[in-house]
Amino acid sequence: MYLIKNLPTNIPYLSLIWLLPLIGALIIMFIPREQKNAMRWTAAIFAGASFFVALLVFFGYNPDAPGYLGTKMQFVEKIAWLPQVGMTYFLGADGISLPLLVLNGLVIFTGVFISWNIEDRVKEYFVLLLILVVGVYGVFMSLDLFLMFVFYELAVLPMYLLIGIWGSTRKEYGAMKLTIYLMIGSALVIVGMVAVYVVTGTFDMVVLSQTIFSRTFQIVFFLPIFVGFAVLAGMFPFHTWSPTGHVAAPTAVSMLHAGVLMKLGAYGALRVGLWLMPAGAQYWLPFIAVITLMNVVYGASIAMVQRDFKYVIGYSSVSHMGLVMLALAAANETALNGAVMQMFAHGVMTALFFAVVGRMVYERTHTRQLPELGGLMKVMPFAFVVFIIASLSSMGMPGTAGFMAEFTIFTGVMQFNPWIAAIAAISIPITAAYVLRVGYMAFMGEVKDPHFYELPPLTWQEKFAGTTLAIVVIGVGLFPSIIMDLIGTGVEPIAQRILDVAPVLAGR
Amino acid sequence: MSFQLSDVSKLIPEFLLIVIALFVLAGDMFGRWRKDDAGYVDRVNEAATMTLFGLGFAFLVTIIQGGFLLPKLGVTFQSVQPSAWWDIPSHLTNVLTNLRSSGLDSTILGGGFVIDPLTHIGRLVFIGAAIVTVILTMSARPSNSPGEFYALILFSTLGMILMTAAGELIMIYLGIEMTSIPLYVLAGYFRRNKLSAEAGVKYYIFGALSSAILLFGMSLVLGMTLMNAPAAQGEVPMVPTSLPAIALAVQNAFATPNDPGQAVLLLGLIFMIAGMAYKVAVVPFHSWAPDVYQGAPTTMTAFISTASKTAGFFLLYRVLLTGFGAPQTTGTAALVGESGGLAFGGWASIIAIIAALTMLLGNLAAMPQTNAKRMLAYSSIAHAGFLLLGLVGISRDSGVALVYYLVVYTITNLGAFGIMALIEDQVGGTEINDLNGLGKRAPMLAFMLTIFVLSLAGIPPLSGFFAKFYIFIVAWQEGAKWLVILAVANTVISLFYYLRMLKAMYIAEPDSDKPVTATFGARSVMMAAMLLVLALGVVPNIIYGALEQVAISIAAR
To answer: Do B460 and A154 touch (CB under 8 A)?
Structure first.
């Protein structure tokens, strides 16, 4: 959507996006410990400001204009960092990164409001939260492999403390498991990066994307890079950290984690794996497609039988991210479109889910066991409404963001292989079943516990965050072209490159 | 080639260290101190202050002599004619210029003392580390006779500089002993504490043994260089123990296939590596390290684990590259070996295997430790393994990566052990449990320790990450792919135990709510170290140029 035609060009928008939360974090560090509201407002203001700049860039991106050096990259910033080693500070955004930047801005902005009730060590909480967000923003806009990795790890590590200190249910275990899994993923990525660097002598992804590596090289090193990122996207069999981590994390962190952080993995797999090594992708993707089926179907089935409300959402993330990975594996233009759309749709939807489950329900009732809940609709109708909106999107109901995403993905996968599409489609009824099941068990029926009537009412912060997310779910569902057109321009070169390069190399 | 009076100016930092050490000793010995506690505090303060001034001055001199500052200040290397005797700016310019020109590349004392960028970097690192250590000891007050304590630190620093600058076998040996003997004493300084006494004795016995091994290796190598002596009597006669003479002997021995000298040289080299490997605590010569690091006064642990290890690596770097690193042009098996390969051809493969063992053992052994100091000791063994990745090749980039890693490692570990020393001082122990709830009791100390630990773990954007990443790249370039993959796996393992420290500090509940404090000096020096760790990671180019000079000058010899 090219709404803002004359955005001044001399402002480093992308740097601003990641610097704003960082400045916010620095300011919070110097606010006296007692002034908790000041810290909360600072966090909200800086998160909101970065969200605003992300929106500016989103609407100021001209899909028809030629981008940087034959790519679709705009808003490019490039500064030599360590030229002797071929590292640059190199940012740019295209149709893939822009929706994700907006998504991240949205989730952190609402996440700050959702964490308004944190009372313990407020300062550390918001500092870590904002640093985490800096990392996420950075990954989505880095065009230098090294820079991207720096941001990537910056996004992973604060998670350990965030879950370990403010989490619930087996938090130390969950935090350690998550960190170790993700570090194994990044270790795999490091191996791939080092290999790429030694061959080419640069980390510049635009240059790398125009380099054609030998077929053997691609086949060998596509795997560590793709799998390394896929661990973060929760790909089977490396998915177990994700439900455990989500359940243990404090609400806003679950929102960020399931909403945005898992997208880092999918984004990295797409941007680094598929973009730089199309022939390797061509070779491995059929296997990966089969494995992601496990995610999609098995993840949904597991979600069906959970008793813990948060685990249901956790496994539903595994299932939905499986769809993203499946679409990446199908690797045609339609499927990739769907993949990016699903990243956005799932991000918003799952953030809304966790906001309801973690903040509105759990922090009032202090239980997440489904059999102990029930009848919450009578107590907190607002939570019920937004939960149903998220559920509909999760089921892929037309009129919500999830519909457009899943429809496109299944179309693309169908072109790739109808059988795989057919098996993946099993997840659709299962998803509907588990979403309706938890909705029924938690919100409908009799009020299980009379104490539920005495629960404190929802605060305006919760309502604000819930409403914002719900509006986005429905708005994007009704007008998918706001995002879809943009995604198309970003995905097209990658799909084209796979079409062009892979057969040529396969023949060798 | 013998000693000339003009060489004195080239050795100003070393002379400064000796003179200050003697002053510190004398001041303590001849001062009229009161016998009570206040008198003791005065003694410590006087000795420490004098040491600090000396070290600080030597540091400044080195900065100017090494050319780290003058080009940036716009001072050119030209003497100015003073207009009159009171023309102080001109005099000052002349002093600075002369000082800098005395630091230009040269070799003095018959090849024994090499002045080159590596020496300058070494001086900076060791003197800097000594300054940090001294400031830390001022708040921890470990000593019962402060004069000796600080003089020993100074002597040991001097020894480390000799190790780095040594271009000849006897000077190498002198340097190692000069470094080690004061450190034996310092490690056992709390002689009434069992662990400390054990540390001292253990360190001494292992040290003596490894010196013997080193000397044996040197004698074998010397035999070969003496056989080459006639060839070396060119226009400028070579000292047979000097590294260039060794390089010549290596070249001659490998010029003809199946020369029996090859085996002797290789054997000598292996013994020498073994002797030096003890200094840097790599497997299988590491077993002294955990006990010594745990037993020694924590401030001394900081010094031993950083400066002394760095000196060992600088020495290895110079000896291997200058003495045994000559590119073999003859086509026969090279002593350097196939870089990073498993074929036993030379030292590169020996180093590669030692590196693999060291990383694995260091990281795996660190995991079950419950004492933070001991855990950091194993972690520093593991780091020695990573560092060896920079020695599997002779390329210029390897040198840059190695020296960068060493500088970063020194700062980071000084910080980590330094904070441990401050905590031990207040909490009374160095168990990981003693760190519990530090995030609440001392937010600033906990934050700094977090940064140091994360840098050790290699988390970007801290400098530890860049150091690791860069050394992985150069090792991969040298062909040691299997080693890099192993190293990357090891970084994940290492994260497990580093996170335990974070967990203790932030997640575990404190035993008491008493705040933990530190003196202003200690806090500010730790803060400076932390900022350096950050800065070197975010903008590594601030020292990249200087390190490139080091690598170029070593590779050129």
So the answer is: yes
**Nearest chain A CA: its distance from B339 CA (Å):** 15
pLDDT at A411: 93
- Contact present, B124 and B311 (Cβ < 8 Å): no
In angstroms, the separation between the Cα of residue B445 and the nearest Cα of chain A is 14
Residue A144 pLDDT exceeds 80: yes
pLDDT (mean) for A5-25: 90
Element (H, E) at A145: helix A145-166
Q: Where are the domains of chain A?
A: 13-507
| Among candidates A81, A153, A190 on the partner chain, residue whose Cβ is nearest the Cβ of B472 | A190
CA-to-CA dists, residue B443 to A456, B435, B439, B525, angstroms:
34, 12, 5, 17
CA B290 distance to own-chain centroid = 18
Quote the crossing angle between the two packed helices B260-280 and B194-227, to the nearest 10°.
160
> Does residue A180 sit at the B interface (CB-CB below 8 Å)?
yes
Q: B354 in helix, strand or coil? A: helix
Could you say which of B465, B473, B496 has the minimum Cβ distance to residue A198? B473
Q: What 3-state DSSP class applies to A80?
A: strand
A465: distance to nearest CA of chain B, Å? 29
Helix or strand holding residue A25 (H, E): helix A13-29
Minimum distance, in Å, between the CA of residue B233 and any CA atom of chain A: 41
Could you tell me whether strands A74-82 and A87-93 are parallel, antiparallel, or unpaired per DSSP bridges?
antiparallel
Is residue B499 within 8 angstroms of chain A, CB to CB? yes
Structure tokens at A38: 């000041």
Query: What's the rounded Cα separation, in Å, for the pair A69 and A82?
Result: 22
Nearest to B501, CA basis, from B444, B442, B451: B451
CB A107 within 8 A of CB A259: yes
> Between chains, do B495 and A194 touch, taking CB under 8 Å as contact?
no
Q: CA–CA separation, A444 vs A131, rounded Å? A: 39
User: Residue B6, class by beta-carbon neighbours within 10 Å (0-12 exposed, 13-18 middle, 19+ buried)?
Assistant: exposed
CA atoms of B51 and A211, how far apart (whole Å): 57
Cβ of residue A385 closer than 8 Å to a chain B Cβ: no
CB contact under 8 A, A84 and B541: yes
**Is A155 in contact with A135 (CB distance < 8 Å)?**
yes
pLDDT value for B232: 58
**Residue B331: its pLDDT value, please?**
41
User: How far is it, in rounded angstroms, from Cα B129 to Cα B314?
Assistant: 15
**Taking CB atoms and an 8 Å limit, are A190 and B469 in contact across chains?**
yes
* Domain range annotation of chain B: 400-557
Lowest mean pLDDT among A19-23, A104-108, B30-34, B433-437: B30-34
When scoring B395, B462, B507 by the number of chain A Cβ atoms within 10 A, the one with the most, hence best to mutate, is B507
Determine the Cα angle at A449 with ends A444 and A452, to 5°: 80
ipTM, interface predicted TM-score of the complex: 0.91
Contact A310, A246 (CB under 8 A): yes
Indicate the SS3 state at residue A261: helix
- The minimum CA-CA distance between A65 and chain B, rounded to whole Å, is 34
Positions in chain B short of pLDDT 70: 1-2, 70-79, 140-144, 229-237, 326-345, 556-557
- List the one residue out of A95, A58, A247, A91 whose CA is nearest residue A167: A247
* Contact in structure between B150 and B81 (CB atoms under 8 Å): no
Judged by CB atoms closer than 8 Å, whether chains meet at A82 and B540 is answered as yes
Suggest the residue from B400, B499, B530 to mutate for an interface test with chain A (most A CBs closer than 10 A): B499
Chain B touched by A168 (CB under 8 Å): no
Tell how far CA A179 is from the center of its chain. 17
Contact check, Cβ <8 Å, B492/A160 = no
A153:B470 CB<8 A: no
C-alpha pair distances (Å), A263 with each of A88, A240, A335, B41, B357:
24, 16, 16, 60, 37
